[in-house]
Amino acid sequence: MGDKTSNTMWGGRFADGPDAIMEAINASISFDRRLARHDIEGSRVHAAMLARQGIIEDSDAAAIREGLLTILSEIEGGTFRFSAALEDIHMNVEARLKELIGDPAGRLHTGRSRNDQVALDVRMWVRDQADAAITGLTALIDALLAQAEAGADWVMPGFTHMQVAQPVTWGHHMMAYVEMFARDRSRFTDARARMNECPLGAAALAGTGFPIDRDMTAAALGFDRPTANSLDSVADRDFALEFLASAAICATHLSRFAEELVIWSSAQFRFVTLSDRFSTGSSIMPQKKNPDAAELVRAKVGRITGATVAVLTVMKGLPLTYSKDMQEDKEQVFDAADALMLALAAMEGMVRDMTANRDGLRTAAACGFSTATDLADWLVRELGLPFRDAHHVTGALVKMAEDRGCDLSALGLADMQTVHGGITGDVYDVLTVEASVASRRSFGGTAPENVRAAITRWRTREMAADV
Ligand code: ARG
After folding, report:
1. What are phi and psi of 65, to 5 degrees?
2. Ligand 1 in contact with 237 (CB < 6 A)?
3. DSSP state letter for 155
4. In this structure, are strands 197-198 and 225-226 parallel, antiparallel, or unpaired?
5. 55 contact partners, CB below 8 Å, separation of at least 6
6. CA distance 447 to 437
7. pLDDT tens across 16-67, in order?
8. Count of CB atoms within 10 A of residue 300's CB?
9. Long-range contacts: 305-311, Cβ < 8 Å, 24+?
10. How far from 19 is each of 179, 222, 231, 253, CA to CA, in Å?
11. DSSP state, 77?
């Protein structure tokens, strides 16, 4: 051992301890303590494997196991004393193990390195978060299905360019988000399947000469198999990047929906009322009910996408294998995961609680000549006009209605006939918003019967776990 101020784990060749700034830039314990449970789990399995392979004594493995369990309860009970001088969670745990059980602690690190250890810990942590994202998305999808079912045939304006385009159904709009969040869920499922290989046993970078059993540790830690290349095992953070990329896309979807909720809950729109449970008041304006949860969900995408770009940038250009740069992955992953889980839960709560204003949606749907396309389609179907001519005739009728400040359905038949003599009274049947949505039965279209079929499809798929 070197000077007593040097590190007890690697101080053999060091005469001096680190500068305070060195310690500050190097230590990760302030954040990687969140890996404690996974770190201890990995060590427990590693020690058991070493004993079974005859690499360490059974009695040493038993002492290590007992010591690790004690450490876990100390950490969970809040009595564990973390030390920045011991850099990270791995060395904090090992140093405490030494205090608790003495010499056998020194045998735990046989055939292992902090490089494969940290790769394992972060991978297990991210795997749990992928599972949590899948669970959170499933709950959100469930809330959306309930909204879609309640309002499968409620008519609302559909927008393009934020201008009223054509009537759609509330259920169809909710189901659009079901599609988006279900794709997010399948991205997490895919990423989880790809990340489920165990890097433990890659050791520092080259593998080890000890007769370890990587299949055993992989299986015991819930992995499908061990990773195949030791260099890649310690250098790879794709699992974190895939999780972050999936999270960023999901957060982008959440922000779009949150934006709609902010707009829809405004006095000008009144499409929905958010519950008191997911709104806040103003300290000065007594009438205010603010959609803060929706605004914060809208904003969380910033840090999640930021974390994705940050870790991509950290990994860019790193030579194989491990470099300390990779320690910078954790805070980004932790922060993004926390933000995503909270945003998913807040969105689920808002969706479960919100009340759609059926009448307000209907009134808004009828504004802005939203059935003009239906009129043009009628001219094509009933009078045999080419669509381009029908478009032109309809445009003239819209202009007439606009000049008179009335809706298309309020134009008299004689007036319509001045634009095209062939128009008959039947045309009024297609000018209602209900007729408009009911007619759009093409696969994926907005008709209420399509919405109900889509809900059934999703419920059945979910039951079959075909996500
Ligand atoms: N705290 C380190 C990290 O998060 C653990 C691995 C350290 N490995 C090393 N060779 N210094 O990346």
Report:
1. -60, -45
2. no
3. E
4. parallel
5. 110, 111, 210, 211, 212
6. 5
7. 889 999 999 999 999 999 999 999 999 999 999 999 999 999 999 999 999 9
8. 24
9. 305/248, 305/251, 305/252, 306/332, 307/244, 307/247, 307/248, 307/332, 307/333, 307/335, 307/336, 308/241, 308/244, 308/245, 308/247, 308/248, 308/336, 311/237, 311/240, 311/241, 311/244
10. 54, 41, 31, 46
11. T
Ligand 1 atom 1, closest CA = 88
Q: How confident is the model at residue 1 (pLDDT cuts 50, 70, 90)?
A: very low
Contact 361 CB / ligand 1 (< 6 Å)? no
Confidence (pLDDT) at 2: 36
Q: Find all residues with CB under 8 Å of 453, minimum gap 6, and list them.
A: none
Half-sphere exposure of 47 (CA within 13 A, CB side): 26
Which of 85, 82, 92, 89 minimizes the C-alpha distance to 20? 85
Q: Tell whether ligand 1 has an atom less than 6 A from the beta carbon of residue 166.
A: no
What's the pLDDT at 6?
65
Q: Which of 30, 59, 282, 323 is catalytic?
A: 282
The band of 98, judged by pLDDT with boundaries at 50, 70 and 90, is very high
The H or E element that residue 147 is part of is helix 114-150
Rounded distance, CA 62 to CA 57, Å?
9
Mutate which of 118, 234, 321, 334 for ligand 1? The one with the most ligand atoms within 8 Å of its CB, which is 118
Residue carrying the six token digits 């007594």: 286
Residue with tokens 């499809």: 457
pLDDT digits (tens, 9 = 90+) for 281-312: 878 887 888 999 999 999 999 999 999 999 99
Cβ of 88 below 6 Å from ligand 1:
yes
Active site residue 161: yes
List the structure tokens of 65.
């196991």
Pocket test for ligand 1, best of 124, 324, 328 (most atoms within 8 A of CB): 324
Task: State the pLDDT at residue 284.
Answer: 80
Checking if the pLDDT of 355 tops 50, the result is yes
In whole angstroms, give the CA distance from residue 175 to residue 181. 10
DSSP reduced 3-state for 399:
helix
Q: Which residue has the tokens 């360490």?
A: 56
In ligand 1, the atom with minimum distance to the C-alpha of 28 is 1
